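Title: Prediction job returns without error message
Component: structure pipeline
Severity: low
Priority: P3
Assignee: unassigned

Description:
Job completed but the reporter wants confirmation the result is attached to the right record. Sequence as submitted:
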Amino acid sequence: MMSQLLFLGVWILILSLFQSAAVNVPQCRRLIDAMVVGRPIDRRCMIFGSVVASLATSPTLALAVADVTDYAIDGFTVGIPSSWKVITKPPSKKGTASKLFSAIDLQSGSVITVVREQACSIQEYAQSQQTCDVVLPQGKVLFSEETLAKDISKLLIRHDDRDNAVLQGTTKLDSYQLDLNRNVVDLIATTSLPSGGTYRDTMGIDRPNTIDRRVKAKAVVEEGQGGCGIFTLWMNAPLDEWQKPVMGIKLNQIWDSVKYVDKSGV
């Protein structure tokens, strides 16, 4: 907390100083770019660049990458700060979604989970809904171009049923990217959780107050002797935590550390 306050205080001081000194930041950037042709640079611009460079390598920002432990969960790897609480679980029996890994930051409310879901044909699902979590599209494969939109929609619904049902949260897809060569989907979504009370919108309609959480996930289709399934790493945190200067850097560094390598090493 102290480091975050220090970081914000320094930035406020710098911005106020340069505003009072009438430093034109876009102009400074153009002048710096012009160095290659030998044009002179305003002294205030040089000072501004020096301050920004010193902040970029400051101990405050270095805290965002310090004390990180790499965890391997089957094909997934992720770097988790030591301040997070980590829980690993043995795989459950076939027929229920297995939450293999969980990590939580109690300070920010950020959460990472790794879940494996078993897929089966519609005939197997009709015989016993306890044998699988995902119904395979008839005559097609999961995450194909024809079924991708529906597969992602169902993936988010199962996520809500598993993690947000108690709080009555609902998740809406914002964007996704598919790697066809590896059958890997990266998606970004927003979960809205009721926070109590109502507000009146511009149309005069009373709507429930909500808290939004930014959700990022990497989902992989796995195929093997044990059948087909979906292996997903979920990361979510309150939207305002993603927007904070220091915590936002930490969360993005954690997400950037997420990698998936299948059994073939790809």
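Comment from assignee: result matches the submitted record. The two ends are 40 Å apart (CA to CA).
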